[in-house]
Specification:
The chain is of the alpha/beta class and 481 residues long. It has 18 helices and 16 strands.
């Protein structure tokens, strides 16, 4: 492969990682415009020139979808940005999405050999991925991979989240006839209803979906698999040769404490869906009912990316105070470091080592406060993090006008309940025979993503979609189960 880089490898260590321009914190905290503003061509070329073009690229091995990093970076250096986009899409059908929300620092960038040298930062792989995808959209042209000739085989995919879309992208490239069924009225699953506009604009998701349509993927909305049509009906009556279940983990969990049924106590799923999918972020143009955050005190329970999304959203909806209440300390937060940094810059109050015991209501049935327990760090638990231990006598009452609970999700049971002989575990997740084949107990039925693993990241779900596509392709071509 041509490196396209005139800078000797040893000198590449001396090039600093290129930062990305951001909206000023004081401004962005009150609008839903995107926080990160992307690279221009000069910054992209400079950053791409840092790549060592490793003979054994650890970054590829640590990417759940196996993007060929060195190859697409080399195409950037050659100024073939559409070619770079097409190269990424061979493995990752959603480069504009993952360039924004993938935790690269824990995966591809975390394995970058540049960062093995003290004081040198890893290659900005996510930033470069975003650059070529954004260039493509702005140019009005597309860099799409070539699809194989039609095989005559039909595949149904239940769910248009990252796992379903990734599976569809691979299968259509292999020549199969693919239809993605979505329960809601917009395509994208958690990408469209769960991630805020300031982190992942809806038009970005829709552009990527349009690219998939151009490749031949079909989409049907307002179809609830298990209710509108069952898995058995797809196979026996609708003519599909295989089904991939990628319905995610969209059923919210709560803490099970008193007061959770009070008005203005939301699950993060409901809150973010109302704001994102129903366009409450464009009030008053869209008068979608979300409890009025303006001048209110909002508490978000949790420490993951969803909690971070919810608390930053409440601030943009006009909250006077926005508190993130988390039972562990800051070092143990599962949220991305970039999101945590942005939240701090915007004025979010981090209340670590705190957990709510009860929500208290007023005479109208609305939450007015929470009883909070302070915690301290104990011995490590199964996750390797310090177990939070209550501090005796440390309880206090905190005024809150609204609460958003973001402590996890589990699978919706509808597909499982309407598909006979589909094995599930004690938590209702679909059981597969292995993480490589993703075959369920039902012939021709595969499953992957959060419906199998429980809630995880976008890119891990996409990795499962790719594995499922490979296994489905083998099944369609051989008929072996």
């Amino acid at each position: 492969m041509n490196d396209n880089n005139p800078i000797p490898p040893k000198e590449r260590y001396n090039i600093p990682r290129q930062s990305m321009k951001e909206q000023a914190a004081a401004e962005r905290a009150r609008n839903f415009g995107e926080v990160n503003l992307g690279y221009d061509e000069v910054k992209a070329a400079t950053e791409a020139s840092r790549c060592l073009q490793c003979g054994k690229p650890r970054c590829v091995n640590c990417c759940p979808v196996g993007v060929k990093v060195a190859e697409f970076v080399s195409l950037i250096l050659a100024k073939d940005y559409l070619g770079a986009a097409a190269k990424i899409r061979e493995d990752n059908i959603l480069p504009a999405v993952t360039g924004r929300v993938c935790p690269q620092e824990e995966q591809c960038e975390g394995a970058c050999l540049l960062s093995r040298r003290p004081g040198v930062e890893s290659l900005g792989i996510g930033y470069l991925e975003r650059f070529v995808a954004d260039y493509e959209q702005t140019s009005g042209k597309t860099g799409l991979p070539v699809c194989a000739p039609a095989t005559g085989k039909k595949v149904a995919i239940a769910g248009s989240g990252p796992s379903g879309l990734s599976c569809a992208g691979d299968l259509v490239q292999l020549g199969h006839d693919v239809t993605v069924f979505e329960a809601l009225h917009d395509i994208g699953g958690v990408l469209i209803y769960g991630i805020p506009e300031f982190r992942l604009p809806k038009e970005i998701v829709r552009h990527e979906v349009d690219n998939m349509r151009a490749m031949g993927v079909k989409f049907e909305t307002n179809v609830v698999i298990g209710k509108t049509v069952t898995v058995d009906e797809l196979l026996d009556e609708e003519g599909f040769d295989a089904v991939f279940i990628a319905t995610g983990a969209g059923l919210p969990e709560f803490l099970g404490i008193p007061g959770e049924n009070l008005c203005a106590v939301y699950s993060a799923n409901e809150f973010l869906t109302r704001v994102n999918l129903m366009k409450a972020y464009r009030f008053p143009e869209y008068d979608e009912p979300v409890f009025d955050c303006k001048d209110k005190i909002v508490g978000v329970i949790g420490g993951g990316n969803t909690a971070m999304d919810a608390v930053r959203t409440s601030l943009r909806l006009g909250a006077r105070q926005a508190h993130l209440i988390y039972r562990r300390d800051e070092a143990d937060m599962p949220a991305r470091l970039e999101e945590l940094k942005h939240a701090k810059q915007e004025g979010i109050d981090l209340m670590t080592l705190c957990v709510p015991l009860e929500y208290l209501g007023d005479d109208r049935g609305y939450v007015k406060s929470a009883r909070i327990q302070r915690m301290e760090k104990g011995e490590p638990d199964a996750s390797g993090r310090s177990r939070p231990v209550p501090i005796p006598g440390s309880e206090f009452e905190m005024p809150l006008d609204m609460v958003v609970v973001a402590v996890g999700n589990r699978s919706n049971p509808l597909v499982q309940q309407t598909t006979p002989n589909l094995d599930t575990d004690a938590k209702g997740r679909i059981i597969v025979d292995s993480n490589e084949t993703l075959k369920t107990s039902r012939r021709a039925v595969f499953a992957g993503g959060d419906i199998v693993t429980g809630a995880a990241t976008v890119i891990l779900a996409m990795g499962a979609g790719r594995k499922a596509a490979s296994a489905i392709n083998e099944y369609l071509l051989t008929g072996e189960w």
